[in-house]
Here is the input.
Amino acid sequence: MGNKSNNLLLGALEMLVLKSLLTEDRHGWGISKRLKQISSGAFTLNVGSLYPALYRLEKKGLVESYAATSEKGREARFYKILPKGKQQLEEHTADWREFSLAVEAVLLSDS
Amino acid sequence: MRWYYKWRTRLKNWLRFNKQHDELAAEIEQHIELSVANLVSSGMDPREARKMALREFGNVEALKEECQDSWGMRFIDTAIRHVHYAGRQMRENKSYTAVVVLTLGIGIGMNTMIFAFANGLKFKPPSFPNGDRLCAINGQDFKRNNRLLGSSYPDFIDFRDQNSTFEFLEAVDYSFAVISDAERPASGYSMALVSPGLIRMLESAPIVGRPFSPEDYQVGATPVLLIGYELWRNRFNEDPNVIDLSIRLNGKPAQIIGVMPEDFRFPNGQEIWMPLVPVESLQSRDNRTLRLYGVMKRSESLSKANADIATIAHRIASKPDANSDIGAVVKPFQDQFNDDESFYMLVVMQLCVGLVLLIACSNVANLQLGRAIKRKFEMNVRTAIGASRPQLIRQLLTESFLLSLLAGSFSLIVSKIGVHFFERSIRDQIPYWMHFTLDYRDFAFLVAVTFLSTALFGLAPAIRISKTELNSGIKESAQSGGSARGSKLMGTLVVFQFALTVVLLASASFMIHGTLEARKINDFIPEDEILTSQIDLRVRGSNRYSTPSERRQFFDELSRRVYQLPGVTHVAFSSSFAGMTDSETNRIEIEDRPISDPREADLVYTCAQSSNFLSAIELPIWKGRGFLDTDGLTGEPVSVVSKQFAERFWPEQSAVGKRFRFLAQSGPGPWRTIVGVTFPFSVKMRGESTLPMAFTAQNEEVRRHTMIHIRSTNDPHSYTQSLREIVKDLDQDLILYSIETVAEGKAQNNWPWVVSSTLFVSFAAAALAMASLGVYSVVAQSAANKTRELGIRKALGATTRNIQGQALSTGFFQLAIGLTIGGSIVFAIAQFSQDALGKLMPYNAILLYGVITLLLAIGLLACWLPARKASLVNPSDTLRAE
Here is the structure.
């Protein structure tokens, strides 16, 4: 796998994680479940890469974590999106849209 | 290993590493539990659910590592693990470790040793109190190429009183003292006349008696002197009653007032000190006999001191009685005593030992590459269970680093021993305050070189080894075939090593050759039969021997008396002796060949000598006649010249009867006729170029400083005492110095060359050993890695000879390339040095071919031995062993 697509995917994963946190705070398993759900199973997430992504986001100050009790009564670590995270998500979403439109324009052109 | 785990735990706790680690573990566990619970609730069997959850999660350990990466903590943990693992590797491969540590240790040790010499010579402050602030202040002649000068007494007073950067600024007048008293024979010592504060500047004081008092510095005061410890011991048997003893110093009464401590011999091995009394003759600014030394203030720097002194010098230059073209410059004290030639020599040596270290590094790199083939399986397994390439490189570099650490420690021992023995062997030839003992600079150099060599020998193999092709790698290593790329790299390193070895070995043989050549010069001289000595007829404070006839009378009488000793066949005098003393040179003009610029005229060596000198050294006359006793007394001056002289200036005709004259600075001398031509006579010393020789008659001027040569049929040393007695009897204020045979004198003059040749030979020997070891281990390893191939080939009918032949031809090919490259470098260097370095390393093609042949033989032997061993293996055994 080339480096560029790798970075793109890593970035994309982080954005997806942020997106999943917009509606509510979630723990790691919750995030993976949510992502599976909203993508309607279009892609299966490698859980292994979810946690490093979460740690990176936390380090960058885009999310914060806290311990709480889950809906099933277990101790779990929850993640909460921070304003800086929201802002980054918006920017990235705009970029992504622009990029995908451009790609689409190329792919669907008649030539 | 319990301590290790204990400390690792402590370290981690301290870094709050465990807490984060535990949190992560808990979070992963939560995730898995949630997955399991979810799956179970959808009706799956709990055990199956857990398995599925784990599978879905992926590699837990890899994930942990990745997360640790983002904390930046893993570095410490892995570093410790790498060191631990590297230590285990080293213990398991003891002989490999030993070879690497020895090779690198010697390489780094040699480099540190040479650096320590250069450091001691040029950078290390002398071993005086405040040695790092001790400076020399010299006059500088702007008109003559900034030549350094001494200072005058008035200059000294100005510098001392007007400067703001020096704590002390003192003056020394170098001199020579002949001491005599009623009981003991006269002997000569090096003496310094010193200004009042000098001994205080060096924080010293007499151990017996008193220091100089202000009264001692009054003009007309009784001359007093302080003597050195060695003089006190040797001449006065450490007798404390020597204080206030009256002696004769340079023919005048003087009083000993004290004895200086054993380590005081300032500035450079002096044994007598007297007050620098400001007598009338010192008051002229043109009398620049003083050397100024000073200790800078702690807050000042060399550049500030220079600016300060230059300002004062400028002020002095504007005075009416001063020379306006003279400035002043401040240098570190030790720079005053360095000659650039030995420093240059050390730089050349440093380059050479650098090459030795390069060879050592490429050797170790080769050994590592060889091991790489063995370790390939290990690397593949480690990659398969999740090690990344950077991790493998880090692991391999850690191993290299640990090896370097051991090698560095070993090299510290090597350099300490080397420096110790070298310093002992040259103790008498270097200033007493110069020491080569290792200091922090040498240590920093050692550490830097160690790091550099780790990078050199460790990086390439590490990158090479860590390039694993997982699938094929594991399969391939089971078949143990060497990779083509690996052996190509190893082969390149062998080529490189041999090229460097040629360069080193050739330089060493040039050095030896040069030294032997120097010994062969003028080999007709019966060096062991001639005792020489030097005498100086200058007696301070007396005008004895001021006219040539007085001096001639002295030498005639001396000669007459020495001839009376039994067995003496020749008593001759000369102003210099080729190979023993500095040679005198003069520019000349040939009659009827006018020259435009006297400074560009031809340069020749000259030597004034008595009429029987040529027969004493057995230099026969080729054409014309030798000197007569009457030559130089009356009539036109005459010369006898060497054959080289005659052929240089009159290649087509006889030189006898032709005329030339010397061009002194004061103007051309009288025309002199050539009356004879000798057989070839070389005056070339090491590092000098050959010039023609012109002998003149001693009687022309009869110099004060003259060499006496006694040739006899007996042991020359047996005349030492009689000669001393004759001289004492003629004049008790005169002394003889440097009494030795010509052979001894030449050897003493040649010692730096002998020492450097020896060093060069040891470098070259080390390089040769390393390069041979290198080619041996490469061939041995590739043969060992090819056992399977060899086995199959033998089974298919290849003979032992075929196999050996193939191994040899591979080795020969590498050797040939290496030797060709090395040979061309040597030719280039030789050519360059012939042009630029004045034939310091005379180019000698036959010698070079000899070196290359020797290397080829050794290299082929190193190829053949392992090839033979490999070819003798029984094919069925090797294949079964797979």
